[in-house]
User: Fold this.
Amino acid sequence: MQYLENEPLASYTSWRIGGPARYFVQATDATDLVQALAWADQRNLPVFVLGGGSNVLIRDTGFPGLVVRIRAHNLRLETHGDEARAMVEAGAPMAGIARRLARQGWAGLEWAEGLPGTIGGALYGNAGCYGGDIATALERAWVLVNGETQEWSAERFAFGYRTSVLKRMRADGVAWRDQPIILAAAFRLHRDDLTALARRMERTSHERRGKTPWGASCGSVFKNPPGESAGRLIEAAGLKGTRIGNAEIAARHANYIINLGGASSDDVLRLIDLARERVLAMTGIELELEIQIVG
Ligand SMILES: Cc1cc2nc3c(=O)[nH]c(=O)nc-3n(C[C@H](O)[C@H](O)[C@H](O)COP(=O)(O)OP(=O)(O)OC[C@H]3O[C@@H](n4cnc5c(N)ncnc54)[C@H](O)[C@@H]3O)c2cc1C
Assistant:
């Protein structure tokens, strides 16, 4: 395994923002991952697990430990008549897997058409869109906890809107050594008509393209407050198109912040603060971040 020193992280994120990792390594299977964790432990370094980098804002100061990028991406299918189970490793691309299965006539993940990121990142944040989410599609998963592989039921993830027990543990400050790392997931599938499936995914893709602002982003920055849309609240606060440095609150969708080119993490963080302050002052609603801030 190749441990890179001071590896810039911007190119591993969809925002194209992020300073260097003190050390950086890619894990192509569970053995690599276990080795990387032991390597960090010996050096007393904190670890951050990165998937597709489509839901993180990495500060320009970077990460002072080891960043492990999960690359294991095998897919195995078990079929039983018109039902199937897809076992997918955590580094596989969510949308790519959904498309691959749909092309074979298997439905269950087609809502994830066009969803950026990996299986691991999707479980961590209970990703969802277009009528589906991880919480309903997941059967079980395998996680690494303190060097031991455990099989978890979907219930054990205690999924909520864009959250899971893993995300809550991080927010509660649980030490990285005690944070479970997702190795693989099993999803329930059923047979469907190939043409109907392809049509549904094409519709989703078309809708997604129509809604997504152009440019480097992390998707929605804030969660939607109950009964509200974060984007509409930010828009009502008059912030669409507001720029700080090289970052902009998208004119097309106010819950997106776009890196116009060379934006710093501070540019984005200042826009985040501004949106929070204005929405709070206007409505009394506190916007909660959907993305993870790293470093
Ligand atoms: C244009 C755009 C559109 C988007 N649209 C949507 C949408 O419609 N719906 C939606 O829900 N999200 C959306 N997102 C957000 C993003 O795609 C999802 O949150 C995605 O699931 C993140 O996966 P990732 O692999 O990129 O995670 P990362 O950004 O790499 O990581 C996110 C978090 O997951 C953790 N993590 C990653 N892998 C593992 C693992 N194996 N084990 C433990 N923890 C892990 C990381 O430590 C980090 O805390 C969008 C993003 C973009 C850029």
